[in-house]
Design goal:
- Keywords: Cell membrane, Membrane, Transmembrane, Transmembrane helix.
- It is found in: Cell membrane.
- It comes from Flavobacterium hiemivividum.
- It is a multi-pass membrane protein.
- The structure is a single chain.
- The chain is mostly helical and 485 residues long.
- The chain has one domain.
- It has 22 helices and no strands.
């Protein structure tokens, strides 16, 4: 029980570091959708989608490689120095080259060069703190990690409110004041990125001491081994980015120009309602990755991984059902402009897709532990191919609903493939009967609630209570042990 207690504690703190910033960013969704037309919000979403791809290239699997070698090598200082120096110089190189060719990038992407410049700086600043944040996790300093992460998003939130809401109100009250002479009208997208730049810069400043006290040396042999381990992770990350973000880019390219940005806008806004599952999955992943590596040598590791996965599915199944039951209440809080609600039908698919991705994260531990990360890259490539093919086939006739179908098909396929291969290379005794039972019942209840009795909360809450009783009936003994602890 000590292992699970420690895992729960770290996951809870990392969860706080994930949930609070995302809750703050929740507030940005109604702000953006209230102030920006659907087309403008769609444009912002496409830019952020491109940023996800570049983030993967700038990290090139070094974060996961850091954790693996930090727990594997005796010289942990060399692992830290090698990974930090490597990321630093590749990031500086990217910054120089990208700024040099920003006009060409703007012409290719169809995005204003000014926004390209802002994006480049955000990407560079965020890349420079990848290893310092990983160091905090490796040395088990979740409170410091949480404080900096929360501070980053809080600054972004405050500045966004200031630039987009508060200053325009002051100017309206005093149109001839000083603020009206320096504030740029019709520059909302620019102010969104400016707030992000300042937040990223302050985060870098907070973690800058790690660079000041760094011994600027690279262990060449170690770096080569870390790169061999990390490159497949990067390929997998690119594939993940395709699964998660490329649909928005394809929507902007495959739909008629007169509706493309509007469709991206409504889809991106309703996509945000899947955030609760994303929060759960992300918080869990942050806590579980160091946990998996640090206990890889234990003889009971497979049993531990099986138990952890079962309870991930139990709690995730409840979140899936709860969010879908109350989805129409959440939309009132997050998306006040009713013109965005036309895309609500994608919400159950997006939430379930993110749950499948979380299960895949659990199932994929085996290829990281046996240093066969290239298998993870292959699985992710299969998912990316499914995403691309289905998007190209479905978007012209089904628009964003086709993108949602592609997302759930990709993550579902990856989940099943990882289980099949993991059972072959690194058998883990998963309780498939219970895992399948909780997942199937949650999906069934969710479908009944959303498609049969939508916004009928008597039925929805009754289904939630029935599901909780099902959990209690099957897990009573373990739950009582946890509560006693």
């Amino acid at each position: 029980m000590g292992l699970y207690k420690r895992l729960f504690k770290q996951t809870a703190i990392y969860g706080l570091a994930t949930v609070l910033p995302r809750m703050f960013s929740f507030l940005l969704v109604p702000l953006y959708t209230d102030l920006l037309p659907k087309a403008e919000y769609g444009k912002v979403s496409v830019i952020f989608a491109y940023m996800i791809f570049i983030n993967v290239f700038l990290a090139y699997g070094m974060e996961t490689a850091f954790f693996r070698f930090f727990n594997k090598e005796s010289d942990k200082k060399a692992v830290l120095e090698t990974s930090m120096v490597s990321i630093f110089w590749t990031t500086i190189s990217f910054l120089f080259i990208a700024l040099l060719f920003r006009d060409s990038l703007a012409a290719w992407s169809g995005i204003d060069s000014q926004y390209i410049s802002y994006t480049i700086w955000i990407l560079a600043l965020d890349a420079l703190v990848i290893i310092p944040f990983s160091k905090l996790r490796a040395y088990q300093k979740p409170m410091v990690y949480a404080a900096i992460k929360i501070g980053n998003v809080l600054v972004n939130l405050i500045l966004s409110l200031l630039f987009l809401l508060y200053i325009p109100m002051l100017i309206e009250a005093n149109p001839y004041g000083f603020l009206s002479s320096i504030y740029v009208d019709n520059f909302q997208i620019g102010y969104i990125f400016l707030a992000n730049i300042i937040a990223s810069l302050l985060t870098f400043v907070a973690l800058f001491p790690d660079y000041v006290y760094l011994n600027w040396k690279i262990d060449t042999n170690l770096w080569k081994r870390m790169m061999r381990y990390g490159m497949p992770i990067m390929v997998a990350g690119i594939a993940f980015a395709i699964n998660e973000q490329f649909d928005k880019i394809l929507l902007s390219k495959l739909l008629p120009a007169n509706i493309a940005e509007d469709e991206v806008g409504v889809y991106s806004a309703c996509y945000k309602l899947g955030l609760f599952m994303v929060l759960y999955r992300t918080a869990y992943t942050l806590g579980i990755e160091p946990f998996f590596f640090s206990h890889a040598a234990d003889k009971n590791a497979p049993q531990t991984y099986a138990m952890v996965t079962k309870y991930f599915v139990i709690f995730g199944s409840f979140i899936l059902l709860a969010v879908i039951v109350f989805a129409d209440l959440f939309k009132l809080l997050m998306i006040r402009d009713s013109s965005y609600w036309v895309a609500m039908k994608v919400v159950p698919l997006i939430i379930l897709a993110n749950f499948f991705l979380g299960i895949y994260t659990n199932l994929s531990v085996w290829y990281k532990l046996i240093d066969k990360t290239y298998i993870g890259a292959y699985i992710s490539i299969v998912g990316a191919i499914i995403t691309l093919v289905l998007n190209f086939l479905l978007i012209p006739t089904m628009s964003y609903y086709g993108s949602a179908i592609a997302t759930i098909a990709a993550y579902g396929s990856m989940m099943f493939i990882s289980y099949y291969l993991g059972n072959k290379y690194y058998p883990i005794p998963y309780d498939l009967k219970k895992i399948g039972g909780y997942l199937s019942l949650s999906i069934f209840f969710s479908a009944v609630s959303f498609y049969g009795f939508r916004e009928n909360y008597y039925v929805g809450i009754s289904l939630l209570i029935a599901f909780l009783y099902f959990i209690y009936h099957n897990e009573k003994e373990m739950l009582m042990k946890i509560l006693k602890k």
